[in-house]
């Protein structure tokens, strides 16, 4: 008996290429299920950026564009506006890492939110530059050991991590900003509802919507998949509290 059906928005026979225990698979499935639920698949253009998130186009059966590192929100802005100019209202979302969204692409991300671009950004926060070998990222937590902070991130040398969802919520053009996690069933269901709210904001032409997803990175954290999820539940959410920081979509 097949208990779970494969969402239409997932490519058939796609081979899982993420590290064991990585949350990207769950995140992409939630995105695919939400695209199906809102009947957006045929009208969607996804923008994947450099980093592990780029593999989105291997799994998602929608039109996908790859952007240069950090430029996903700028590329999505162009795609959304150009289509609008010729009378096509495309559903456009980005799928980015935290280094991509909140460091190299912070300018593009923040100004897209400030302009109130009617796009949705999804940021997978695994607290490091995952694809390139686990270097310290803008979201690495205080004391976190990475390949470029072997003694742990410290205040004097590295400064503090960025709380992306809270910052994006401060932008006047943002209508929805939230942070979710995927370490257990309850949080996965919540994440799906939050992604739907963010997508609905765009469908209702409200403005910039954003979802930060706390994601495990067992390979670079040097933990087992279970230990990595425990770390998110017991440690990471102290730095990165879960919740909806702004929702003006019904105003
Ligand atoms: C302009 C530019 N600089 C650096 C790189 C190398 N690079 C590729 S992926 C990556 C790290 C991405 O980290 P993050 O955005 O956090 O995503 P993750 O891999 O952790 O999902 C880097 C630095 C690049 N491709 N382009």
Give a brief outline of the structure.
This protein has 251 residues and is α/β, with parallel strands linked by helices. Helices cover 39% and strands 18% of the residues. It has 10 helices and 9 strands.
Oligomer: single chain
Question: What is the straight-line distance between the termini?
Answer: 45 Å
Task: Give the count of structural domains.
Answer: 1
What's the architecture, going by CATH? Answer: 3-Layer(aba) Sandwich
| Number of helical regions | 10
Question: For the record, what is the CATH homologous superfamily label?
Answer: Thiamin diphosphate (ThDP)-binding fold, Pyr/PP domains
CATH class: Alpha Beta
The set of bound ligands, ions and cofactors reads: thiamine diphosphate
Topology, number of strands? 9
Low-confidence runs (pLDDT<50, min 5 residues)? Answer: none
- β-strand percent reads 15-25%
Helix content: 25-40%
Mean pLDDT: 96
The order of strands across the largest sheet is 2-1-3-4-8-7-9
Characteristics:
single chain, 7-stranded mixed sheet, two-stranded antiparallel sheet, Rossmann fold
Descriptive account of the structure:
The protein has 251 residues and is an alpha/beta fold. The protein has one domain (24-247): Thiamin diphosphate (ThDP)-binding fold, Pyr/PP domains (Rossmann fold), CATH 3.40.50.970. It contains 10 helices and 9 strands. The structure holds thiamine diphosphate. Thiamine diphosphate (TPP) binds at residues 50-53, 69, 97-100, 124, 126, 129-132, 137.
């Amino acid at each position: 008996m097949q208990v779970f059906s494969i969402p239409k928005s997932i490519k058939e026979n796609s081979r899982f290429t993420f590290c064991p225990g990585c949350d990207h698979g769950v995140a992409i499935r939630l995105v695919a299920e939400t695209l199906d639920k809102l009947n957006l698949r045929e009208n969607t253009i996804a923008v994947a950026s450099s980093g592990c998130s780029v593999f989105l186009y291997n799994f998602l059966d929608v039109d996908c564009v790859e952007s240069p590192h950090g430029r996903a929100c700028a590329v999505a802005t162009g795609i959304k506006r150009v289509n609008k100019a010729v009378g096509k209202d495309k559903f456009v979302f980005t799928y980015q890492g935290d280094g991509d969204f909140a460091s190299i692409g912070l300018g593009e991300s923040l100004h897209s939110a400030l302009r109130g671009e009617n796009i949705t950004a999804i940021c997978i926060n695994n607290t490091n530059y995952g694809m390139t070998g686990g270097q310290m990222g803008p979201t690495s937590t205080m004391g976190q050991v990475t390949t470029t902070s072997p003694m742990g991130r410290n205040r004097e040398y590295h400064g503090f991590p960025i709380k992306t969802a809270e910052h994006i919520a401060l932008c006047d053009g943002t209508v929805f900003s939230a942070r979710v996690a995927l370490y257990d069933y309850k949080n996965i269901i919540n994440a799906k509802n939050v992604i739907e709210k963010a997508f609905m904001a765009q469908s209702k032409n409200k403005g910039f919507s954003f979802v930060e997803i706390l994601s495990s990175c067992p390979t670079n954290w040097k933990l087992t998949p279970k230990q990595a999820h425990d770390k998110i539940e017991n440690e990471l959410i102290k730095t990165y509290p879960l919740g909806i920081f702004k929702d003006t979509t019904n105003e």
